[in-house]
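note to self — DONT lose this again. spent like an hour looking for the file last time. sequence + predicted structure for the chain T wanted, 341 res
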Amino acid sequence: MPPITVPLRAPELVPGLWVQGPEVSLASCRGRVVLVEFWESTCVNCVRTLPYLKAWHERYAGRGLTVVGVHTPEFDFTADPETVAAAVRAEQIPYPVLLDVGARTWERFANHYWPSRYLIDARGYLRYEHFGEGAYGTTEEWMQRLLQEAGDPAPMPPLLAPVRGEDEPGAVCHRATREVHAGFHRGKLAAPEGYRPGEEVRHTERPEGPAPPGMFGATGLWFHEAEFLEAREPGAALELLCDAAGVHAVLAPGGEAEIEVDGAPIRPEERGGDVHEREGRTRAEWDCGRMVRLVGGGVFRRRRVMLRFPQVGVRVYAFSFSTSCEAVEPPPSRHGPDEVR
């Protein structure tokens, strides 16, 4: 993302509920550099940026940086203050977080993506923006530059080392399956019965086999809503093919699900953080509505993932997928070691 060549006055944050303080206004931050991060607690890409945000807060808050998390909810349940506060606690976020119900601050910034970050200089002007994961080194370089412009004369520390291999400069990443929503508004259900908004539907297996990557199938009784599918009988199941190193599901409220990969319990080295083995089966458990980590381990491949829900009332909102990357060695030089370049 190129830098902003003509600085623009940053819009003010719309007053709202601060799920974690202290309350911040951009006007009150004149003389300080501000990093505004739009995020969502069920967005895997947002969660993957948090180690950098927390480290920047720790490094630079005492040198004139204010980090503000603006949580703009994607789903109805992530607009609930208690849900967001639980996510802030679980992720150990140390900086202020504004709950942006109605996306009013999002709209003021003309934002379109989770995550997005904006750097605002000590005079209140937008100077740098980045959308999505990555560019952590460039972001920190701009942060240091703006702190120096604001009058910090001390030497700046070396840039943070990459947290993951895929954050290394020049890393080449596999193309993971894109996010799959479950509800009829944006959903990708591949089932003979199709979507029936506001109805209970008994789904049967697809005669042609699993849905292709980017879609999902369903069996059992499900209620169809705009944002989610809700299990209406024990044993209702969803199945999908995906290309990924990590698989996550947005589920609410708290509950459990049996999960299989390629028709068998998940191998220990591929289990996500919310999966454990019980009585020879692998199960995911979660205590509240959130992103549930199903598959991990870092190995990118195609998987057939099945979730079976023993409880009525679990709502499935979306599936998201993470990739893995490989560092690419630079090509050997065509010059000898003593030749002039």
